[in-house]
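Example 4.3 (complexes with small molecules)
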Amino acid sequence: MKPLALTVFLAFLAPVALAAPEDLNLPEVLKTLDGKRVTSPEAWRDGRRPEVLELFREFVYGRAPVGRPSSLRFEIRDTLEDFMSGDATRKLIDIHFAGAGGRGTIHLTVFIPNKVKKPVPGFVLICNRGRENIDPERKTISGFWPAEQIVRRGYVAATFHNSDLDPDEHDGFKNGVHGIFDRKDTERSPDAWGTIAAWAWGASRAMDYFESDPDIDSSKMAVVGHSRGGKTALWCGAEDERFALVISNDSGCTGAALARRKSGERVARINKGFPHWFCDNYKQFNDREDELPVDQHMLIALMAPRLVYVASASEDAWADPLGEFLACVHAAPAYELYGLEGLGTAIMPPPDRPIQAGHIGYHLRKGKHNLTEYDWNCYMDFADKHWGRNISDSGQ
Ligand code: GTR
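Answer. The structure with beta-D-galactopyranuronic acid bound is encoded below.
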């Protein structure tokens, strides 16, 4: 083996050394802005957690002007009980809403396993790739959303496309839910919601539907997203505590990766490339990551004491796998307040060796930036483990 090939081979085998937290000077999860130490679950839930959430609203993702709108309405467009060779019932649901600027609809696709005790827990994917990846007819099958496998393992497979909420383009926040709900009589504020927050809002409306469906166990639903969708899943999980499990796949910059690592995609770059994703205040931190009042480990900590899972890919340097892993490590103190284990290790695992014992799960998949069946299987293993499910629940 050539020396370089050998080094790369060994790097995959050897645990990756950690940068000490002091080196990054991360803000402490359990220290309030006025310097008080948080030592109880109550002080976290009622004090520090809302404080951190507000910091992310004000400086990063922006503030949604509306929660569940009174206009929200579910239209079950179609129910087919004999889908996937009888394994699943398919429901196509239109979630309608309206505001001063017009109306919108989220097209939600849901497959509910037939041979399983109801209500059934499951996963909702925020799809940010082409709609063919979430084909409700199943003529196109994609590893990005392996609905058949999800159903076979006894879980609800649900999904919607992010563009139902807001197209992924910078149009000055005129179209999508911004155009529907934003006030027109005042200037847009620097902490107004960006597109990531708009997509996250959509996942919460899907949760509104799950709560209304007796076949779905809304107390055990996971929100899943890849890349920009992964950033969205994390923000959704922070804003909406109804999600019991939050899954970030290769979310990278302003997702799971620590900004202060300044590795891979950086704040200035993401704000330039995607000026519509975050709130205007976030642009103050271009090339000034150290001045952020938060870092992304605090976003992961906002899930505590719920389950959260972060996955990276070994060839995805742009998303900074080590930065994603370290954010999980440094989110743990919020879990420890509840007597729960966070990640349970500070040593980065080699590829394809998931860490799943604690309330924070992590794996580094070998390969490129993508959401694959391997990733999904890890997420379902984690859910099986923590939700006490086994193959007999799947009816197989
Ligand atoms: C990239 C962007 C990343 C990531 C990715 C994706 O261009 O720089 O932050 O979100 O797109 O969503 O696939």
